[in-house]
Amino acid sequence: MRLRDNALLLTVALAAIVLLAGLSGQVAAGIAAALAVFVAALAPRAGPARQEAKAPTLAAAAPDNLPSGSELAAAIADPLILADRHGVVIFANAAASLAFGRVHPGELVALRFRSPEMQELIEAALSGMAVRPVDYGERVPIERSFKVSVTRIGEDGRFALHFRDQSETRRIDRMRADFIANASHELRTPLASISGFIETLRGPARNDAEARERFLQIMHTQTGRMARLIDDLLSLSRLEMKPLAGAGTTVDLVALAREVTDSLGQMIRENEMALELDLPAEPVFVLANADEIVQVVENLVENACKYGQSGKRLDIALSNDEEEASLSVRDHGPGIPAEHIPRVTERFYRVDVETSRAQKGTGLGLAIVKHILTRHKGRLTIRSAPGEGATFTLHLPLAKDPTTR
To answer: 3-164: CATH homologous superfamily?
Structure first.
């Protein structure tokens, strides 16, 4: 078919090939493929005899399964919109419709994207000026961030808008900034307290033995808080450097639960809590790093003692099915409001800041628990309601061969 009979298909094919080639770094291959499509479109229709004579050559140069332009454009995972020199939409791939709603051919692209940065980008593209990529954000139906670039097509003013999704990168950047700010705050607070007491001991309390002992005890408490925070930060860093656990060994969760409750028995008694164990008579084996699973269970039991003390009861239960084992730690304290539950495993997130600090919490314990379980292909579930306590349950895959050591 002649070029003038299939202008839209040619435009889409050229744009998709060039964009795909640019994204993969194979610019030369993209240009060659684009020229092949262009030559094929310009080639005159041959007569029957001539077509039959040249069939083998054409088949070798342009196989029947060559993808169409729309197929190539649809293969791009990012949103892609093609417009003519008037800014009228020629084509939009499925990713564009998914991200921005149905984009209809024939509508003005400037009416679809009304933010100032996109208006300037489109205006520059229509005027033929050099265009730099811009940042663009969508808040409905979910918040997403894009880096938008313009690629010119041919010499007649057509252009393509390519939207590269930056949402995950921005989310990670925000998490990093929040982490640095929170870590700095958590360290600065005890340091400021220690610094203040040192100044007092040098001045007004220089010869006050009673004040000196009291201040030194507070300084000791604050240095312990910083040490715990640094230890938790180092633990979290080590876990993140190795997102998957090694081969591990078979661990009996029944024995492990008894070991943890024995080691934390003094804490449980000091908080005047009654311990109820519901453990199977037979061993329950999982394939794991024993020290890390001990850290998980200790963390959950310590949290139950710290924040569920008012309930005066601690329940630990273990069950399993054919696929996984489930170890739950339940307190009967004040519980956790529903709006906080999705966030309690975030770093430095606290339901009650003052209570957490009074209980010597760092705000990193449940984040460490989550990372350890993720490394072991497990998960953590949380059930709670105000006034009904909280239940934290770790789920781990059962060991396929319990004899493995």
So the answer is: PAS domain (3.30.450.20)
